[in-house]
Amino acid sequence: MSGEAVTVRDAREDDAAAFARVHERCWTESYAGIADATWLTRRPLRDRIEDWVAIVRDHAVELRAAEGEDRRTIGFVSFGASRDEDAEAGTGEIIALYVDPARQRDGAGTALLERAVADLRAQGFARATLWTLEGNAPARRFYAAHGWKQASGRKEHRSLGAHEVRYARDL
Q1: CB 3.0-4.6 Å disulfide test: which of 99, 101, 128, 145 passes with 29?
Q2: Is residue 121 classed as helix, strand or coil in its secondary structure?
Q3: How far is CA 114 from the centre of its chain?
Q4: Residue 149 pLDDT > 90, yes or no?
Q5: For the domain with range 7-170, which CATH number is right: 2.30.33.40, 3.40.630.30, 3.40.50.970, 3.90.1600.10?
Q6: Interaxial angle between packed helices 45-58 and 16-25, expressed in degrees from 0 to 180 and rounded to the nearest 10
Q7: Alpha helix locations (H) across 8-62?
Q8: Contact between 171 and 128 (Cβ < 8 Å)
Q9: Cα 128 from chain centroid?
């Protein structure tokens, strides 16, 4: 735990390269032995950066960045209305939460999650869900420590060689 201060802010287009690198590092390091990262890594980095630029520009989902004291982007969270077909009205979703493996467990994930929950609440959502890899015990402990409970729902991803489980909480 570094103890370095973390700032959460709206994402910008110039975060795209950092988002692509954080995303890749999480899949190749944090998920090693849990899921197959080739679905991500087989695409050239420049293409993934272009995808992130498009996501930031599109505003289809909310996207926040975490940066350390050195102002380098170290993580991100995306969220919005639930994409689940079985979601009740008023349900939001944490779509993705990634923190550079070198900065995990130093408060960046907590800051991102708390900001997303606060923003979902401010947008009028009463409940939120998220999906996480079933075999990712550290992430599951993290969400449980922040009041999320495993809910019904499980998805199989053959291309990843993994399953996801759903978590939920009232806002």
Answers
A1: 101
A2: helix
A3: 12
A4: yes
A5: 3.40.630.30
A6: 120
A7: 16-25, 38-41, 45-58
A8: yes
A9: 14
